[in-house]
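Morning. Coffee machine broken again, so started the prediction first thing and wrote up yesterday's gels while waiting. Chain of 102 residues, entered below exactly as on the submission form.
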Amino acid sequence: MKLYLLVGVALSALVSNVALASADLAKSKNCMACHAVANKVVGPGFKDVAAKYAGQKDAEDKLTQKVLKGGSGNWGAIPMPANAQVSEAEARTLVKWILTLK
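Came back before lunch.
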């Protein structure tokens, strides 16, 4: 029983650290200049993005490309610029994190 508890605590810590790491990555890549987790700033809140794309099989790939190349028209008139400072791996990490938000 103690082993299961220990494994559970370790897995929880790992998941929490991944979530924190992704939030930190979003801050370090200047995503938070235009986005927030729960509310619209210039662009939509990340929770709104997660809700809009929930259940879509191609959401991760589609949003990774949006982070990298930018886009317009999905959330209003203000376009999202391309993010040259973000690698594809970082963009995918950010998108995976965003899609987990509720």
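Helices lie at 2-28, 46-53, 59-69, 88-100. Going to sketch it on the whiteboard this afternoon.
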